[in-house]
What does this fold into?
Amino acid sequence: MKLLSVVVPCYNSAAYMAHCIEALLTGGPALEVVIVDDGSTDETAQLADDYAAAQPDRVRVVHEVNGGHGAAINSGLAVATGRFFKVVDSDDWLDPDALAQLMAHLADPAYTDGLDMLICNFIYDKVDAAHKKTMQFHQLLPTDRAFGWDQVHLPAGKYFLMHAVLYRTAMLRDAHLQLPAHTFWI
It folds into this structure.
């Protein structure tokens, strides 16, 4: 069993998916990358297979008929072996230093005991945007400790995007999570 499974839904991502996958591979052998080729018509499937062939103990590939983002996440969750589960889009990536910190936290049973969700800050860096926007939750949530939903008080219009959340895999499975096929955000 891996510590973290990161599902990377890919649809015609050949031009940029390598950056995402290479960044994830810096997470070490406890991190599993599950590339879900969602019926791509470009070289995405071949690139995914090349990664799996080069790193068979760290990269898995699921090929499916195009079902959309939600279906790709469902497929990734079905095969994920990690104790924890995260979705990273193929045009996104994790900073290697931040990923190393995350993996260290996840490897510490004192940190993860009873953990169902982990919420992280992220940087929104849209192509052609003049400035990056840092999404931080430290002003809205308790930090560096476990807390319950009764301590969450998000103002209207504030919510968690999938970029910020990591889940305990068993929790998602126990809840029978099944996203609608073309749902884009979780």
About this structure: The chain has one domain: 4-174. Strands lie at 4-10, 31-38, 59-64, 84-87, 117-119, 122-124, 133-135, 165-168. Helices lie at 17-25, 44-54, 68-79, 96-106, 109-112, 169-174.
